Amino acid sequence: MALSTHFTQRGRQDVALVLMGDGDHAATLRSLAHELELDSYVNFTGWTESKDIVRYLTVADVGLSPDPQNGLNEFSTMIKTMEYMAMGKPVVAFDLAETRLSAQAAALYATPNLVQDFADKIETLLDNEELRRKLGDYGRKRIKEKLHWEVSKEHLLLVYKRLFPEWFEIDDTGVQAVTSVEEKISIHR
User: Fold this and answer.
1) Residue-range domains of the chain with CATH
2) pLDDT tens column, 90-132
3) In this structure, what DSSP letter does residue 165 have?
4) What's the whole-model pTM score?
5) H-state helical runs in 21-179
């Protein structure tokens, strides 16, 4: 809500925030938006189907990853950041190690947990179409060349191979393959 308040205080009429998803704080956030008279700036979608996520992202100018620094987020790749990049959208995120590793030059980074800086980064992108395009293009290219499943699965399989070499065997073509991963995982639970 601080973001919406920031934009209304600056007199911006060209900003609308869409909050997709649901969670423990959704009702509180809806009430707060109403209390702050931000209903016309904030749209809460609730749980959102994949096809609708694509629809929203198609018309979005900027993808926001406002995940705070909290001891966990620094080490987590946020799915929404990858979705924004795949859709060619520039990202604004707090400067967290994993987000920077994933998004690289597809994002503008705000000082962790500093909402004012986060809002300033959003405004920078809203006011600069060329920068939005440049960051969005970089993100789409990064997903296509480095982060899509065909590339990522090889890295993931290498990690599993090192952790659980007994899960892999050489088949008659000389190719190593996972043997019954589901069975192996259930045994190790």
Assistant:
1) 2-149 (3.40.50.2000), 150-188 (no CATH)
2) 999 999 999 999 999 999 999 999 999 999 999 999 999 999 9
3) G
4) 0.80
5) 26-35, 50-59, 79-86, 97-103, 115-126, 129-142, 149-163
